[in-house]
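Following up on my earlier thread - several people asked me to post the actual chain instead of describing it. Fair enough. Here it is, all 229 residues.
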Amino acid sequence: MPPRIEGPAGKPRGLYCFDSDTTSANLWLVTTEHDIGSMAMISTTSGQVVLRTFAAPLLALSLLWLSMLPAAAGELSGVSESQPLKFSLPDLSGKPHNLNEFTGKVLLVNFWASWCRPCIEEMPSIQRLTAAMTDAPFVVIGVNVGEAERRVRATARRLGIAFPVLLDADSAVFRAWGADVLPTTFVLDSRGRVRYVGRGPVEWDQSEIIDLLKRLAADSPAGELKPGL
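Reply from S.P.:
Thanks for posting it. Predicted structure:
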């Protein structure tokens, strides 16, 4: 788990996003409070934190710069045990959805934000995965973390996102599920158990991942991930 920048009363705040630096494990933390924003680069190998605080206009420019960075590769790993998860979140039309709606189907839940470049770069592979899984009991849900509905709607339209997008406006579900970096993706089996977690951007339409998810959707042993995935 990456180091935390502590907010008031010792509570963690902000969102981590994968850095573009593929030679070291760095994360970006972005946080805002009232009219002040902060950005920090954190080395997950040394734990060193470099913090800069900006007024809101400069933070906006910094977020634009951050969104233009190329993404580092993420990783997909298996989960041996998982605690029961839940959510109740509205979609872009305000209709609430919960996890029980998807019982009996394999569910991919992708947490993302519009300012997170790795999240945006990952989206096309998720769309291609959705197309490759049309004949399987498989559903993709995008959960936007911490952004206004208007911005999320505009981003979804621009990217041509065809799967449902839910709004985690206060980041409560993101944190309750134990996520600490964007993007993070959870793969749940047909019984609602977490079987795999993608931390950082993953190429979801790799043939090995598609085969893995098809086996999971068929309720057969999911098998082991090969090194490098």
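The longest helix spans residues 117-132. That should answer part of your original question.
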